Amino acid sequence: MPKLADFATLPRNIAIVALFCTAIATGVGFASHGGFWESMIHSFAIGFSIFLPIDLSRRLLWGVARPPRLPLLAIIGVSIVAGFLVGNGVAGAITGRPLFGQRVFMSIAVTAFAGIAINWYFYNRERLALLRADAEKVERGAVEARLKLLQAQIEPHFLFNTLANLHSLIATDPKRAQTMLEHLNDYLRATLDAARRETGTLGEEFALLRGYLEVLKIRMGQRLVFNLEMPKDLENSKIPPMLLQPLVENAIKHGLEPKVEGGRIDVIATADKDVLSIRVEDSGLGMGQSDTKGSGLGLAHVRERLAAAYPGKGSLEISEQPAGTAVIVRIPR
Fold first, then answer.
1. Mind listing the pLDDT tens digit of every residue in the chain (333 residues)?
2. How far is CA 255 from CA 247, 260, 293, 313, 328, in A?
3. CATH, domain 173-332, list 2.30.40.10, 3.30.360.10, 3.30.565.10, 3.40.50.150
4. Do the Cβ atoms of 187 and 143 come closer than 8 Å?
5. pTM, whole model, 2 decimals?
6. Residue 162 and residue 219: Cα distance in Å, rounded?
7. Residue 121: exposed, middle, or buried by beta-carbon count in 10 A (0-12, 13-18, 19+)?
């Protein structure tokens, strides 16, 4: 069943064919047999009698997918012959001067050449568009693969520290150890679920961050205060899974953990018209002040994922605060 999106490029193609027909009417020499406007009528009548059956058949049969070569060539061949006969008849009825004699042979030659040329143009144009789409998919896959590699490097560090804390808490404070184990279980479950999906929701992302921060809250005690704010109507907003995780990890690892007294982290989601904004703000040491200054891979991967998921529409902004750092992610809602 054809979709509306399958016809999105039809107006553009009609405009290209109209320009092509105008160029043919102007440059081929029909003007010596009845004038420019008669040439235009013949050119447009024949041109669109050929183009429309080909283009509409292709869209109805294959949509935006690349059509198989042999069926497409058959449609083009039949349409060129039928389009010439129908177009010539329509133009002759309008002008009262159907093509005859030498003009018929000239017209057949021009029609065959023009029909092949314009279809070759459209074929290569759409082939290039499909190649670009495939390249974008490959790039998105590469970005996701690099992200998973980054997660594989980060998560063992987090898990080993958490397990070491659990080991000591089991002997000294079994109740806190049980609470930490519950939060760790929630976090790991959410992480594994997110790793299997290509898209997620803001609600799922916040649930993952809550599990992560709850575990760290037990580890850091009073040194960590966190706040997650998300309006109810934004819970189902689409977002790449684990997009915010590296930002929160950076804030903890480089901002709050190295600070003796610790601090606060806020993750706040807001929406303005069609733009979703998520602000990750901490009251840590600030940019460049920590001895644990990272390589910047986390931020680089977030930028790459935004560029792959929202080309030209997603952004990441970093700003230094009076105390700490703020990172704002903006994506289409």
1. 556 555 667 787 788 778 777 777 775 554 445 567 777 887 788 888 888 888 888 778 877 677 777 887 788 778 878 887 888 788 878 877 766 544 555 566 666 666 666 666 666 666 666 666 666 666 666 656 655 554 554 456 677 777 777 777 787 888 888 888 888 887 777 776 766 667 789 999 998 899 889 988 988 889 999 999 999 999 999 998 888 988 998 888 888 888 889 899 999 999 988 899 999 999 988 766 656 555 566 788 788 888 888 888 889 999 887 788 999 999 998
2. 11, 11, 9, 29, 16
3. 3.30.565.10
4. no
5. 0.54
6. 7
7. middle
Rounded Cα–Cα distance for residues 305 and 285 (Å): 27
Q: Where are the chain's structural domains?
A: 4-133, 173-332
> Tokens 């790793």 map to which residue?
195
| Residue 181 in tokens | 């184990």
